[in-house]
Design a protein that fits this description.
The protein is of the alpha/beta class. It is 43% helix and 17% strand. Strand 1 and strand 2 form a beta hairpin. It is flat, with a radius of gyration of 29 Å.
């Protein structure tokens, strides 16, 4: 009897393809993937296979898991794309990263960019940029807008970012600031925000300066706790490594060797914005974020963020990041809400422009004799 050859180490099986046709007559493919580790595969699939269900909805494919195997059925391109997404998520889970619905969306967006920019033999070599912190490890951009934002943060000393809520402007800015401190690029972090209420007056707030501005800076605190341990945040606040500086009290300061973050900048006036921009000192970085569609300034006051974006575009050393309603990553429902509001605003602008383009009704033209009689009657002395 011929001896059976010894088996080598088990590897991840290459995807198998079975060609067929869809109901519309388009070429379809059945892709079969096999993962080494059942535990990591279950993390990729998600609780009750929610990640696979989300992948099905986003790409329009059918995904059937069976142990550490998964079968993907659908049009050839999307089925192969879904396979690449699952392999990307598996490699991230293998590196210790969590696999959430947001990570699934990010991997899908990354595969879309790779498919549009690179040929198929180079797919998977390029990826979105990431920031690395000690607590969270690598945090990768989830769409092309976030990827461009991170590249602007790493390339420029001053970055202006505007866009709707939920696009990750402030969260990524805080993560980048934490990474700069941990790398020793800067020595401290200065957080600022205009003290403007959103449509209601809070009245007198008790406590010291930090306690007064805490309600306005709570979103930044939440982001800090995502990237740093709570005890490290508290210690940094006590030692001055993290400083809370209300925008109204920034005049006259020179901020050196610091990363300075101004959030909700759409509520800063033109005078405040100019004052804040000129605080930048040697060895410092400045990040300014805001949403021009949520300005809470009194009527008649111009937003400093809108003016700064217009004036500083093209200035060397100044980066700019623009987010659209489709770049919302907070929640699918938030994305749909923002898109609904933006669609309504566009309709109102289109209706207003249409009304302004319509000519005014012209007065009836009088004959020469009638006009002369009317003129003489007005000039006749009484």
């Amino acid at each position: 009897m011929t001896p059976r050859p010894e088996r080598g180490p088990r590897r991840e099986a290459a995807p198998q393809r079975v060609e067929s046709l869809t109901r519309d007559g388009l070429p379809a493919t059945e892709v079969v993937l096999s993962f080494e580790d059942n535990g990591l595969a279950s993390l990729v699939f998600g609780h009750y296979d929610q990640n696979l269900a989300h992948l099905e909805r986003r790409l329009g494919v059918v995904v059937n898991p069976n142990g550490n195997h998964v079968t993907i059925k659908g049009p050839r391109e999307t089925a192969e794309q879904a396979g690449r997404v699952l392999k990307t998520l598996y490699s991230r889970a293998k590196a210790g990263a969590s696999v959430t619905l947001g990570e699934v969306d990010g991997a899908i967006e990354e595969s879309n960019v790779q498919r549009s920019l690179f040929p198929s033999d180079n797919a998977g070599k390029a990826s979105f940029d990431a920031i690395v912190t000690r607590k969270r490890g690598p945090v990768r951009a989830r769409n092309a807008a976030q990827d461009a934002y991170l590249r602007q943060l790493k390339r420029n000393e001053l970055v202006l970012a505007e866009g709707p809520a939920g696009t990750g402007k402030t969260w990524l800015a805080v993560g980048h600031a934490v990474s700069l401190i941990e790398q020793g690029v800067v020595e401290r972090m200065v957080l600022s925000r205009p003290a403007v209420e959103a449509g209601e007056r809070l009245g007198f707030l008790p406590g010291d300066m930090r306690e007064k501005v805490d309600p306005y800076l709570r979103p930044i605190y939440d982001a800090l706790n995502d990237f740093m341990e709570a005890r490290h945040v508290e210690r940094a606040l006590q030692t001055g490594m993290i400083e809370i500086a209300p925008l109204a009290f920034m005049r006259g300061r020179t901020l050196t060797n610091a990363v300075v973050l101004l959030d909700e900048a759409q509520n800063a006036t033109s005078v405040q914005m100019k004052m804040f921009l000129t605080r930048l000192g040697e060895g410092s970085r400045m990040i300014i974020t805001g949403d021009p569609s949520q300005i809470d300034l009194p009527p008649g006051q111009r937003s400093g963020l809108v003016e700064a974006v217009r004036l500083l575009s093209g200035v060397e050393g100044v980066g700019y990041a623009k987010f659209e309603e489709g770049d919302v990553v907070r929640h699918d429902l938030v994305r749909r809400i923002v898109m609904a509001y933006e669609s309504a605003a566009r309709r109102e602008r289109a209706e207003w422009e249409e009304r302004t383009r319509q000519p005014l009704p012209s007065a009836p033209i009088e004959g020469d004799s009638e006009g002369l009689k009317r003129t003489l009657s007005r000039e006749r002395p009484r």
